[in-house]
Amino acid sequence: MSGARDIASRPPLGRPSAQSARFKTEWVTRPFFGVVLAGIAVALTAAGAYPFSIMVAVVSAAALREWHRIVEEGGFARELWISAPFLSAALILMAARPGSFLPWLVLAAGTALVFMAASMRGARALWHASGVLYVGVPALLLSEIRATVPHAPWVIIGLFLIVWATDTGALVCGNLIGGPKLLTSLSPKKTWAGAIGGTIAACVAMGAYVAAIGGNVPASILLAAVLSVAAHAGDLSESWVKRQFKVKDSGGLIPGHGGALDRIDSTLAASVALAAAVLGVGIDATFGAPL
Question: What is the pLDDT averaged over residues 207-227?
């Protein structure tokens, strides 16, 4: 009887299970929406500091919504009405007054207000407030890079290429090679093969990009490796947060990708690393390219 039940539970021969059908659909929707979103991101990056900051504000608001929903365990959190406007205002201020400390004060004020609002209703105040900084600090750093760094569009597009290549290389190598897991305590599916493959893909993509614009390729590969490792760390950190609240995806906004927060987790960490290199150390992230 047990064998009969096992046979009956299997899908008929020649007909894929629902799980495999979903997998195949994701392999179509993920690259399609990835290419569309990449095109929009590149176009708005090239359009100017204000269009770029507006794009970052929209994406950040979507990510904050998902963060607050995760912390609220699926419910809407009114703290979004504080965090999103304050971060958006800080981003627009950064475009208007690049290098000013005022945008950072606006972000700090928004974070404090979110903490107080959540505390007053007995919610997880520290978690809600930390999300404002988690999304807001990298967003402001990116906006500052766009507004202040020479040849900023080329620098930011290079960052995007590193992150996209890291994610794609990790996905392909992780699925095709498999092997030992990277950190099961943070993410049960990520493998060493995926992590190494993602970093190699990032180095190749950045090296080709910098070669095309006439810069120093070996130096660009070194930066790509550092930013790729940061991107992996960003992915793992968001996985850790989701595990704390027992959720698989931050949302379902982007078919094949999950939520906005799932889409930008690597970019958030890589942006901080890029800002440390460019704004902190003064590295030329176009590597001498005659732009």
Answer: 97
The amino acid present at 143, given as its one-letter code, is S
User: Which of 69, 43, 9 is closest to 242 using CA atoms?
Assistant: 69
Q: Is 43 within 8 Å of 49 (Cβ atoms)?
A: no
Residues 6+ apart with CB under 8 A from 166: 198, 199, 201, 202, 228, 231, 232, 266
For residue 265 the two structure tokens come to 């987790």
Please list, in sequence order, all residues whose beta carbon lies within 8 angstroms of the beta carbon of residue 53, skipping any fewer than 6 positions away. 91, 92, 94, 95, 143, 146, 147
Q: Where are the alpha helices (DSSP H) in the chain?
A: 2-9, 18-47, 49-71, 80-96, 102-120, 125-148, 152-176, 192-213, 217-244, 260-275
Would you state the pLDDT for residue 76? 83
How far is it, in rounded angstroms, from Cα 208 to Cα 211? 5
The residue ranges of every structural domain in the chain are 46-148, 151-291
Whether 188 contacts 194, CB under 8 Å: no
